[in-house]
Amino acid sequence: MFAKDFSHLYSDECNRRNQDKLSALFAYAQRKDVTFLGNGLPESKYFPWQSVSGTCPTPPFANGIDSCDKSTDTFSFQTMKNDNSNSKLGTCGDSSFNLARGLQYQAIEGQPAVLDFIREHLKIIHKVGTHYQDWDAILSIGNCQAFDAIIRTFCNVGDFILAEEYSFSATVNAAKAQGIKPVSLKMDDHGIIPEYLIELLDNWPADLKKPKLLYTIPTGQNPLSYSLSTERKKIIYEVLQKHDILIVEDEPYYFLQTGEYVSKNERKEVKFNNHQEFVDSLATSFLSLDNDGRVLRMESYSKVLAPGIRLGFIAGSSAILKKISAYHLMSIMAPSGFSQTFLNELLNSWKQTGYLDWLIGLRHEYTLKRDGALDCLLELIPKELIENDVVRVSPPAAGMFFTVELNAKKHSKFNGDKNAVEDYINEKFIEEGVIVAPGSWFAVGNPEEIKDIISSEDDGYIFYRMTFAASELPIIQEGIAKIANVIKFEFK
Ligand SMILES: Cc1ncc(COP(=O)(O)O)c(C=O)c1O
User: Aminotransferase class I/classII large domain: from which residue to which, for each copy (predicted)?
Assistant: First the structure.
């Protein structure tokens, strides 16, 4: 089976992107049988870095990944500019590449050694290749950049896309700034409500073009921290298939699947006896359900390694990825060679099993933080405020965030005016010395054209997004105590 052809959905910009004849010459740069006078590749002898080196912890991180700063169980690497290469432009070995190659122009999709690791990883986690065979992965500079490249490849000014009604503001704003019109999808405690999506698309006005793609954050959704179930994903996939709409899954939190929150006295530590048990515990992705090549999966190393590495990847149909690479060629060219060198040394030393050990360790850390934050929150918010529909807390099962929902109608001032209550309570949080993100900052809104298609009830709740990622648990608990103080005072 091969991926379907989605070329009818490409943007005008994508269709205007000319095949770059010059970059095609890169393929000859390493060949010994030709004299290469093609591209302006500077000789690596003029690169001032003779080597780079680093020290990293060694799997299986038996004492937990939080102790890796103090760990003596480490390995060191040194990547030389020139190893035994006889090419001044650098060579690319099976599992590593030298700096002369890493810092050179060429691999627009990413260095082969890094991509090979990612492809293998995708087979292990998402069983790619089982539904359609012409899949691939290319590197990105993280999910924000990946999304920018994807929407430029598919959307024209005035095109619609679908998004969760509250979503990550940077990506949604990038779309809006390009003149693209995001349409909100209603959510409940389990993410996008499929029936809402069905009704919206079945009633889509005949004189408007259908949305090009769904932008979703399926795991540990930002800001609401919900995770979409497999059942919902299957329904959503089928609905979008019917309406010829692509799916872009933005998954920076995929490996922060902390599992259902269990109250303190019933809690048991989750242990994985082997890597397969961990892999089996992970959510079924849209990518792994995809028979058509309509899913583009964006993953990032920001939350699993470090945001500053600015590396991620896009996985999906290779025909689509070629179009995205064509945009990369005329914009970012390729992610930084230094970043790729460091990622390559780390991952190819850890190997797939070591990387899974790291991810298991990370899951453990975030579970402790999630549990510590939620225990504290549920202890400090008076039970009667929850029972009387004043406060709602939905413990997350993935991601870095949790929310506190407040019923604006139950506040003594502002007559249930949600914006006024949200601003007022936020000011009180700040006065108390705690910084959170008000929910309305993440509201996607709806374009004028579709405002009348579906009406939905407003339950009068506002919410604030908080994270347990940014500090040590005692600090987070200090912040939660301040939140609880304000809520108790304001809704007494
Ligand atoms: C949903 C979502 N997408 C993308 C990003 C940014 O990812 P990256 O650092 O890979 O650009 C974030 C977080 O900051 C996020 O929450």
Answer: 104-447
